[in-house]
Known about the structure:
Blueprint: H1 6-14, E1 21-22, H2 24-30, E2 35-40, E3 46-58, E4 61-77, E5 83-84, E6 90-93, H3 104-113, H4 116-125, H5 127-130
Antiparallel strand pairs: 1-2, 2-3, 3-4, 4-5, 4-6
Amino acid sequence: MASYTRDQISRWNKKLSNGFQLDLNRLLMWNEKSAVRNIKLPDGKVLQASISWVEVRDGFRYTGLVQPEMHLSIWTPTDSGMMTSSGMGAAFKLSETSFPRKVWNELAKFTVEWNDERIMAEAKKYAKALNNPYIVA
C-alpha cells in the first residue's frame, strides 16, 4: 500500500476548482487519483460527482489511452448516520480527447468547467438512471 503525506494531498487539492477535492477513499483503496464533489440536495440526499480517468477501448481491446469521465450518484442517509447508494448512477465522458497517461494536472482542468449549476443540470438529464435502485445497463 502506498503512503502519502499531508503536503502531497494538499498540493493535489490546490489544483482543483469549484469545491472538488481529491477522493481519499479511492486513492487509499485503489491508488487512483480522482476528484470528487458532494452537493447537498433539499431532500437531505447528497449528489456525488466524481471526475476520473477511464481506459479507452476499441471493442474489447484496451488501447492504452485514457479519457476523463464524470460519474454521478445519489447518496441517501440512513438511521445509523451512514450514507447508502443503490444502482449504478450515471457516467459520461467529459471529452472525446484521449490522453496517453493519467495526468492529475489535466484531470484538474476539468473541475474548472463543472460548477454546482452545471452538475445539477447534468443530473437532471440522467435523473432516471440516478433514481433507479437496480443495476441496469
